[in-house]
Design a protein that fits this description.
It is a single chain. The chain is mainly beta. It contains no helices and eleven strands. It is globular and about 40 Å long.
């Protein structure tokens, strides 16, 4: 059974940093696509960043380019979302997701979702 556990959220002030973790189980990290999404209050869920074992990272949201990066620790089956220079508009519940069938970050269909971790950016 595929499980994704997102963690690391919290309350931070503008311009501070947070690192979110997505611990994956139920599949091997020999080949994977893991995406980070977020849903702000009153808004639809949107893609943020994706990482593919074979193709590296892909930005879904240009507003985070230069501030957010995605990385993985294959030995720990964990993907990280490093968020720097956080802004109030980054406030959201952040989710990680993975597909049943591995393609790439552009053509992927996400089937499995973590429970979400809340990030609040406020002074």
């Amino acid at each position: 059974e595929v499980q994704l556990q997102a963690s690391g959220g919290g309350l931070v002030q503008p311009w501070e940093s947070l690192r979110l973790s997505c611990a994956a189980s139920g599949f091997t990290f020999d080949d994977y696509v893991i995406g980070w999404f977020r849903q702000a209050p009153g808004k639809e869920r949107e893609g943020v960043l994706c990482i593919s074992r074979n193709d590296g990272s892909t930005y879904y949201d240009d507003s985070v380019r230069g501030r957010f990066t995605i990385s993985s620790d294959n030995a720990k089956n964990t993907v990280y979302l490093q968020m720097n220079s956080l802004k109030p508009e980054d406030t959201a519940v952040y989710y990680c997701a993975s597909p049943k069938y591995i393609t790439d970050c552009e053509d992927v269909v996400y089937d499995y979702w973590g429970q979400g971790t809340k990030v609040t950016v406020s002074s």
